[in-house]
Fold this sequence. Notes:
74% helix
Amino acid sequence: MSRKFLETESPGWVTDGLISEAQRQQLLARYPAEVPAVGLLPLLGSVLVGLSALSVVAANWQGLPAVLRLALLLGSLLGAYGAGTYFLRRGNADLGHGLIGLGLLVFGAAIILVSQLYQLVGYDVSGLLAWVVAGVALSYVYGSRLLVLLTVVIGAGVQTYCVQALGSFSYATAVLVAAGLGYYWWRRPEVVSSTVLSTGLLWQAGLLVLALHAKITWFFVPAMAIYAAGDWQARGNGARALQGPPLVAAYLFMFGLATFGETDAYADVLRPPLLPYLGALGAVFALSVAGKRALGRLNTLLDWLLLLPGFYLPGGLPLAVATLVVLYAHAGSVLARAHRNQDSDQLTVGAVLFVAATAVAYFKLTWAFLDKSLFFLLGGVLLLSLSWYLRRRNAQTLAAAPPAPPVATPDDAAPEPPASTHNS
């Protein structure tokens, strides 16, 4: 909720008797006026001037003396950090954190350019690892979501370079991102930072599977370990934000199996040894269940339906039916939970998942024996009918929700004393 929204709407709440003027002032005090940011034109002008200077230096970089190159790099680094600190002290957090982030990027560029300047060993990742360390440290010092985002992206870039160019996986980089930023997330589980960190860790997990030349389904063991970490986070918004990317990955995988898994062509890619895979996934499942039970979230246990290993079934009709049943069951669990919690957003998500499962089932099971014109006609009618029904159920559920109780005002706290009947 923004202060501008409160300033616009709260007088009407006072007029309608929802809150008192004193409560309105208390609400406004909780959302202080934002410090005016630096104007957009001066900021863009500064960026353009900086890009101009950067292009001049880049064009003449090879012809500059080594000492001057180092001086330019060091001056740029100190200038970015100094300017960021200055604006932070002036109360302009957005610009200050942006300049600190620019300093972090300059630091990484300096590592690469100094390595080229002195022809350091090209297969040593220690310099890039120092870049990740700096990003994690700055994230803690300044507590900025922008720095967390940059550090996750830097970690992903360093790991990608290690796997593709060096042919190895940097476990140190993965541990720095997972442990360093993981502890940061645990203390500050913001929605944006949680989503960014979860996505970055999924990227690290995918690169690990690629580097080990393992079956791609091993990816879901670390992915669901990220999901299980969210089950132990007491703050619900941050927990669900961390769990979102793993669930999206699991759903897309199951959706792909339902759509394209009609043959055994993917068996060599998808089927790891049964007992080790089920043992590892089962251990993560037990950790997730323990967290859900401890924090009273067992109603989300059906999220694990998407991890049922249906790819061990033979291709064709058995696999198609099994994956469709899972998709329908998962969509139904989302809708049921949304109805219980009166959550309109989750109702919309559940409706979309249900319609998507119905579309896949329709295309997979009727394409072979229906005339194409009749196929599309019936499909359109079916999806429109489903959309109407789910929208109607959504409206009925929200209409049946009990109204919020009125807020007691100071004037309502105590009844007025009765009028005196004393005769003068």
